Amino acid sequence: MRAPYILYKRGAGKKRPTYYVGFWSEAHQDYRDRQSVQRIIDSMGERAAYLNATSRAAADAAVQMWLAAGSPKRQGETWLSYLLAFWGRDGEYAVRLRSAGKRITNAYADNNKWDLARFVEPYLAKRKLSGLTLSQVDARFIEDMLLAIQKECGASGRRLNQIRQAISVAMKEAKRLGKIARNPVTDVMKFREKRKPRKILTRVEATNLLSKLKTGDRRVFVANLLGATTGMRLGECIGLTIDRLHEETVKLDDGSSRTYHWIELDAEASNWTEADRHHGAKSGSIGEVPVPATTAELLKRLHGENPWRNEWVFWGGHKHRPMTARDIWSGYNDACEQIGIETEERKARKLGFHAWRHFYVSVMRSLSDARSVQAVVRHANEATTKIYSHLTDEQRREITDAAGGVIQYQESGL
What we know:
alpha+beta; DNA polymerase, domain 1; hpI Integrase, Chain A; 3 domains; three-stranded antiparallel β-sheet; 17 helices
């Protein structure tokens, strides 16, 4: 439980420091309405004349007297305060979802709250509309606001749709709870999103990039190799534990045998982000991911080097945490520079770690059938996910064989 207010000192040259007060805001999850305690004392007139703002005890007494008298005048729930509280990590909405066994990540809640605080809150404050209530907001107002944000802030169509969605989910819940009669966002237009085609890494660039990465931190190299040869996302790579790497030995028609490897991703603990720690795979992304033999061997070898002797494959500096995404980004970006892909080009081509996923898909399309590739990359579309959620043993082996040819690199010295 947060304290209703905090006291803190500010210096004033040679004069004694004076105390200031900040009041807790549930909506912002921060201390707001900060002001000088001396100003509070002055507002109460003679009855507080014996108090001062230079002593903590006196300042505390002044604030308590002010609160007892009914100040500051607290405003009821506003549209903005509802939206910001709605997307709080431990807000009522998140608690309801988790109680019902549904999943909402801290990162998702944080991103929605950040959009509202960055764009909606300043828009309302500039126009002195922060006091609007839920019932005073209609579709025309929301649409005009989004158009103004587009014009004044240069927000993209994608960003505007994200803001629209953050508002829509909150208003839909407000309607369900009887706070408003209907969700006005249903009548708000969606914005056109201009998606620039990604310029995928060429095989030569990918090979050179991995060659440079191989000379640095082994964990960074193996993480990038895993992304390149499986299409796994960064969080899925970082969150990998050795118990999720499986293998089976199959006897071939010619009498020889071969070992196949795969990684199991489920809804429990297959992903890692700093905001949510270990959690389930991205929605619709559970499944089995075939892993080429060389990549699997490097994963096992890397785990063997884990100084903590625990389950993390990409172990970090702390026993209970894997390495950070920042470490992998840094190594990836440095390697790009070394092979001649400068920062501006990298940004223009959107060549982040996720580029390995696009590279993998583009190459695999020429090496295997589309149905199997869609199953491996665990398409986000719900209908597609239902169709391609599992691979047969034969498909998994075919994909593994094909994935071995996704990238060519020197195995010596690994």
